[in-house]
Specification:
With about 300 residues, the chain is an all-alpha fold. The chain has one domain (about 20-305). It is built from 14 helices and no strands. It has helices at about 1-5, 10-30, 30-40, 45-60, 70-95, 100-105, 110-120, 125-150, 160-185, 190-210, 220-245, 250-255, 260-275, 280-300. It is globular. The protein starts with a helix and ends in an 11-residue tail after the last helix.
Length: about 300
């Protein structure tokens, strides 16, 4: 991939980079939908484990010899631990407590969390539009969580605990993203992605076997196997490759806008295919979160000034 794109003009590489980020955001938006299907017959740990085992299968063809030094291996392993066993176990435990639509809308806070991370860790000045976007996103989260407390309690419905745990998982994802971006400044996105997922999956296997035992093999429906394979191959392996390759070729401040596809797609799938119901507060909260993310990512600074550099 690297050799072929090197022969393209700069505008062509940029266009392909944006296209890769857009496709990644779209596929990510289906992750909660497939996860909810798999959770009908699998525990959280076994569902996440199958997702990453399938992802590893998808990444085998792109494996290249890593040329990481000892310090870089430590950074990669730290990022993998935060991004795979810790983040995904929390995120999909949260999904088991809330609806696909609510979980997807909460993911819309990710660009704002990235901006806060830039302010804290790289001392970037957020600016008045950034703080306004942060306030709007916070109001959106508040409205969604309040709508969770006002919803009728029952299995499969939204919950305050589930919604807030999604946000906690996104804060953990911040470390994963920042460390991966740092590693990709000196190494191929393919290497960072593939070995990050492989090492994280090894950690996940140890975690799940120790806490939940071996995953079931017999007795699972075809629907669950398809959902597990799709979440691993499409929503994990392919999306990570597309996203890491995309942000390697376009300004990260502009690529972040494509993260907004995920909450929109996820909430739409939840409403249309799973029968989720969003109250007026949740709809308004979702609009505020997505609008804040769009403002933040379309009024950002140049590539030299953004968080990931």
């Amino acid at each position: 991939m690297a050799s072929s794109t090197a022969q393209l003009s700069a505008p062509s590489r940029t266009a392909l980079g944006y296209g890769a980020c857009a496709l990644a955001g779209t596929l990510w938006g289906t992750g909660f939908y497939f996860g909810k299907i798999a959770l009908t017959e699998l525990s959280v740990g076994h569902m996440v484990l199958y997702r990453f085992l399938f992802a590893c299968v998808g990444l085998v063809p792109v494996l290249r010899r890593p040329r990481l030094n000892r310090r870089e291996w430590m950074l990669l392993l730290t990022a993998s631990f935060l991004g795979i066993p810790v983040q995904y176990m929390i995120q999909f435990y949260a999904l088991s407590l809330t609806t696909v639509s609510h979980a997807a809308l909460m993911v819309g806070t990710m660009p704002v969390i990235l901006a806060i991370g830039a302010t804290i860790f790289t001392h970037e000045r957020l600016g008045w539009t950034g703080w306004l976007a942060l306030a709007g996103s916070t109001c959106g989260v508040t409205l969604i969580t309040l709508s969770s407390t006002h919803s009728q309690a029952g299995p499969g419905g939204p919950s305050l605990k589930g919604d807030l745990l999604v946000v906690v998982s996104l804060v953990l994802a911040l470390g994963w993203i920042l460390l991966n971006r740092h590693l990709m400044q000196g190494h191929s996105p393919l290497v960072v992605t593939a070995y990050g997922v492989l090492s994280g999956t090894v950690m996940l296997v140890v975690w799940v076997l120790a806490t939940s035992g071996p995953p079931p093999v017999h007795g699972l429906s075809t629907q669950v196997w398809i959902a597990s394979a799709a979440s691993g191959l499409l929503c994990t392996a392919l999306t990570m490759l597309l996203w890491n390759w995309g942000i390697h070729h376009v300004p990260a401040s502009r690529a972040g806008v494509f993260l907004n596809i995920e909450p929109a797609m996820g909430s739409l799938l939840g409403v249309v295919l799973l029968g989720d119901r969003l109250g007026p507060d949740a709809w308004l909260g979702g609009v505020l979160i997505i609008a804040a993310a769009i403002v933040l990512t379309t009024t950002g600074k140049t590539e030299a000034e953004v968080v990931m550099e």
